[in-house]
Amino acid sequence: MAQRLDGKALAQEIQLALAQQVKTLTAKTGRPPGLAVIMVGDDPASATYVRNKHRACDRIGIASYGKHLPASTPQTELLNYIQQLNQDDRVDGILLQLPLPQDLDAVTLLNSIAPDKDVDGLHPINMGRLLRGEPGLRSCTPAGVMHLLQTYDVPIAGRHAVVLGRSILVGKPMALMLLAANATVTIAHSSTRDLVAVTRQADILVTAVGRPHLITAGMVNPGTTVIDVGINRVEHPNGKGKLVGDVDFAAVEPLVQAITPVPGGIGPMTVAMLLQNTVLSYCKRFHIDG
Ligand SMILES: Nc1nc(=O)c2c([nH]1)NC[C@@H]1CN(c3ccc(C(=O)N[C@@H](CCC(=O)O)C(=O)O)cc3)C=[N+]21
């Protein structure tokens, strides 16, 4: 049976350490770190996620700002609001929750966030820093994956990492972070031929596709560490919603070296990295070593 990589427990440890750090820092500077989360529209999954972030901020002593705006909010109003947050000295991190309603231009909005407050690591400056191997704010989900792998001593250097998915939010930065850690990296996607042949070679298999049961028993090997980044809400026979990843967990767990569950895997790690990025950004602003 595979080892379970417990993202939830690790995220709790990280939050506990951050709470201590925030307490000390706040006493020293006279103001807590601040995070602004902007949510536009009423996507129910986003609403849960945003609520989790506010709760986590409360727990560790980060002040949360930000707004829940109607789906009809015009682009210019959002741009003005982001500008205001860019200039707000209480705010160290700004996160624009995705997806946005159709009529809004997400790229322009994301690019208007000040790079040193871009705790999502999605601004071209921060993406460029990652690409070039320079320090900078890193995207939370792939940073969470790296942190989990490192904590559980999963070997990365020289190993074959296969990343399924090439999104800006996960797949691309994930591949770059694994590369920076000296993995041999393959990015597979919807046009990849013979996906099974590719995934079977993986020492580390990261799936960020958003398709339940995409990864089946025949696609892994006994040495594989499976990192399931998929967050899919599926209908349960009893009518209640249930959260599953991209991996057929029951079938794959007995066959691999290690695996992350959903829920309780990378999701909570993402939130922990967001809080960590906020504290890092705050420390930079005060010229304190984080
Ligand atoms: N600008 C932006 N940055 C993001 O990082 C971002 C985003 N937009 N939009 C949506 C995705 C998705 N995402 C999740 C993070 C944590 C959980 C999480 O904590 N999940 C819990 C369960 C939560 C539940 O029960 O619903 C778990 O997996 O155990 C889920 C999803 C961040 N995203």
Provide a count of the helices. 10
- Count up the domains: 2
Helix percentage = 40-55%
Q: What hetero molecules are bound to the protein chains?
A: 5,10-Methenyltetrahydrofolate
Query: What is the mean pLDDT?
Result: 97
Distance between the termini: 38 Å
GO molecular function: methenyltetrahydrofolate cyclohydrolase activity; methylenetetrahydrofolate dehydrogenase (NADP+) activity
InterPro entries: Aminoacid_DH-like_N_sf, NAD(P)-bd_dom_sf, THF_DH/CycHdrlase, THF_DH/CycHdrlase_cat_dom, THF_DH/CycHdrlase_CS, THF_DH/CycHdrlase_NAD-bd_dom
Catalytic activity: (6R)-5,10-methylene-5,6,7,8-tetrahydrofolate + NADP(+) = (6R)-5,10-methenyltetrahydrofolate + NADPH; (6R)-5,10-methenyltetrahydrofolate + H2O = (6R)-10-formyltetrahydrofolate + H(+)
EC number: 1.5.1.5, 3.5.4.9
Describe the 3D structure.
This protein folds into two domains: 30-114, Rossmann fold, CATH 3.40.50; 140-267, 3-Layer(aba) Sandwich (Rossmann fold), CATH 3.40.50. Helix content is 41%, strand content 17%. The chain has helices at residues 7-29, 44-60, 75-87, 106-111, 124-132, 140-151, 171-180, 195-199, 249-252, 266-285; strands at 3-4, 34-40, 63-69, 93-96, 160-164, 184-188, 204-207, 225-228, 232-235, 241-244, 258-259. α2 (44-60) links the parallel β2 (34-40) and β3. α1 (7-29) packs parallel to α10 (266-285), α6 runs parallel beside α7 (171-180) and α6 (140-151) crosses α10 (266-285). The protein is globular, with a radius of gyration of 19 Å. The N and C termini lie far apart (38 Å). Bound molecules: 5,10-Methenyltetrahydrofolate. Residues 48-49, 52, 95-98, 120, 140-141, 231, 243, 262-264, 267-268, 270-271 line the site of 5,10-Methenyltetrahydrofolate. The site of 5,10-Methenyltetrahydrofolate has 19 residues, from α2, β4, α6 and α10.
